[in-house]
Specification:
The complex is a heterodimer of chains A (473) and B (219). By secondary structure, chain A is an all-alpha fold. Chain A has 14 helices and no strands. Chain A has helices at 16-51, 64-96, 103-125, 142-161, 170-195, 201-235, 245-255, 272-294, 296-299, 306-328, 331-337, 341-371, 378-411, 417-462. In chain A, α1 (16-51) runs antiparallel to α2, α1 (16-51) runs parallel beside α3 and α6 packs across α12. By secondary structure, chain B is mainly alpha-helical. Chain B has helices at 17-29, 40-63, 93-109, 127-130, 133-142, 171-183, 194-204, 212-216, and strands spanning 144-150, 153-159. Chain B has a two-stranded antiparallel ribbon. In chain B, β1 and β2 (153-159) form a beta hairpin. In chain B, α3 (93-109) packs across α6 (171-183) and α6 (171-183) packs across α7. Chain B is elongated. Classes of the chains: A mainly alpha (473), B mainly alpha (219).
Amino acid sequence: MITHAPSTAATAAPSETDLTARKPLGMLLAAAFLWLLVSGGLSLVTAIQLHTPGFLADCAMFTHGRAQALQETVFIYGWAANAAFAVAVWILGRLSGAPLRGVGLMTVGTFFWNLAVLVGLVAIAVGELTGIPFLQMPAYVHPFLLVAGAAIATPGILAWTGRRITTMFAAQWYAVAALLLFVWSYSTAQVLLLASPVHGVAQAVVAAWFAETEVSLWLIPVALAAAYYLLPKISGRVIPNYDYAPHGFWTLIFFASFTGARSLVGAPVPAWIPTLAIVCSSLLLFHYFVLGLNLRAGLAGGRGNPILSFVSAGLLVYLLGGIVTAVFAFRGFAQIVQFTFFPVAQLKLMLAGAFSLPIFGAIYFLAPRVTGVAWPSTALIRAHFVLTVLGLTVTVVSLAIAGWVQGHGLLDPAKNFAAIAASTKPWLLAATAGEAIFLLGSVIAAFHFFRLQCAACRGLLCGSPATLEASAS
Amino acid sequence: MSDQPTPDFRPAKPLTDEELLHAHEQITATEKDDGGSYKLLPLVLLFLFSGLIFFGGTYLNLFSGHFSPKIFDERNLPHAHEDPNALPVKIDMVAYGKKQYESFCHTCHQPNGLGIPGAFPPLAKSEWVQDSEERLIRIVLHGLNGPVSVAGVTFNGIMPAAGPTGAGWSDDRIAAVLTYIRQEWGNKAGPIATEKVTEVRTKDGTRKEWTAVELEKIP
């Protein structure tokens, strides 16, 4: 294993990438944190409605169907998209060894992306939702999002194609793949589901494919890029067994998009479609194995560094989620947990855990370097970590148990529906508590981030050397 | 970390971006041969992946429903529940015959069965079609040459054979097309069985076209 002594010369000045990225990244992350708060609030509303159906039932825009669609949309297109774009572009810029190009495009793209999300949310609130998972906003919003998203991604792609250091590192593969596959899957889904919808059951197949690619080939790769980038940088050690990293990468790229149809077990689709999805879920175990091998240093824990804590918790959740997905894809299990709270828990595990945790870590790492100001408080970061992990664990575990209980109840013809609903209630109450804890963590993180931004603005206004705290490493 | 009041998470032993890239490039670029000894990990990965592929292939083979677009239940394959005593599927001889007629006969006798005056005789209301099965089968099987009187009008042409000496149609195709023309266009004669065509074919074997005079001797 090779270790590197700190290079004393490089730590003084901020890197060119960070200086050029300051404005668009600030916008992206500010938007991301605002949407995260909205999403947390909506999660709480939908969680309460599951055990207290009367909650906000008289307010049309907060009826469960719309609140659920709003929450999903805010999380994916608000929090996750903004944060993922910021982290992916920043990592690509950093590893290109050159200032970012096309930053203006990114700024404009960020503005229009968030404007379009806002329009889409208003449309959902007044009842104009499509009913397609992850594509709930009406058809006219999505083309704008596609163009804006492509504009935000452009500096990342330009940084990669025009990199000064010709070597490629695993973090770059994942980040570039995420940006390109986002455009691929999002545009395909828009054509096949909204512009000229395919007919019959093919629609369900395409929708399942899209929901899976959004998570596995767009958001998750950014989190993996962050993990591959942060672990060696912070620990100062190279990735162990790095030669196998390409195998892990290609198995994900090749098999992940086929796994979506596992949710169609028992649906009126040709039997081979869910079967292929089950097989590909199993084949992805190879991806998780290589990832665990490469990033096992991170699995050992943060060793006091809160950024590493976030990344390693995210990795653990990702590996756990992968194994759960592979096991519960099989028909014997799927028939029990299908149409219960269990898949909700699985999705939460992937989005709020495997994706969000490493991304939080990456934001804590990049924000001081980009703004040139140190985080005001370590305690707040630790509090965020503890609350997030606690909230996530409570929510996911209770929803999974609720789903398991519910699934067995639904398969028992002797049990009536009201009895099944009553049996899940304690777990749903626990899940609500978990959502509240998670939201509290998000509030702390957002508050902390905006304090950092304010400090950075003051620094710029006073003309003080804001670069003091920024590290070029 | 906790002793640092204002953290920017500068690592104790930081890697700059360039160091990070070059350190990892070295790993992939210098793949050394360790003097004849081999590493265990590549083998483990190879076996793991092969095992997964083997499992996946087997599972796919068992539960793919032969990749058929019509099989929705992977355990309920059609061949598993096939009844060995099931009767063969009944074919609608009229529909089958209509297809044959439209593929071959209609060029001369026309889709409306009226033929072309002066050139090809009509089938509609034709005594040749409706009266003797024996004659009709022989005309189609072996063909007809020379003058023939149909519904009081004399035609002089040649009708090619559809049987073994001509187009090579099977007995059931011939039976089907004859059944069809005997009930179409107002004709009201009974169907012709495949067995009857077979019987005539075996009796007469292969021969040249009939003439109307020869046919009229047959009942």
